[in-house]
């Protein structure tokens, strides 16, 4: 029996698909994990450095993910 799992999406900018990196959240249209952006920033690296390292991720997509994260935090704490 084959089970088909639909990819999940967060506003189309981030997707999770079991066939891509085991279902990790990645930037849509790439194989770049969203966690990598946060790891770069946590390590003191700039957004520009991340974008230079992963040219398949558009700036507006990375910025939207950061804003989404901020909005989620603010909603949880409200």
Can you describe what's shown?
The protein is an alpha+beta fold and 78 residues long. The chain has helices spanning 34-42, 47-53, 59-77; strands at residues 8-10, 14-16, 25-27. A three-stranded antiparallel β-sheet has the order 1-2-3, with helices on one face. It is globular, with a radius of gyration of 14 Å. The model is unreliable at 1-5 (pLDDT under 50).
Unreliable parts: 1-5
Strand elements, count: 3
Largest sheet: 3 strands, antiparallel
Instruction: Spell the H/E element sequence.
Output: EEEHHH
Number of helices: 3
Global shape: globular
Strand arrangement in the largest pleated sheet: 1-2-3
Q: What is the radius of gyration computed over CA atoms, rounded to a whole number of angstroms?
A: 14 Å
Work out the strand percent.
5-15%
Find the structural class using helix and strand composition: alpha+beta
- Secondary structure: helix percent: 40-55%
Mean pLDDT score, rounded? Answer: 88
What is the terminal-to-terminal distance? 45 Å
Name some characteristics of this structure.
globular, 3 strands, single chain, 78 residues, alpha+beta
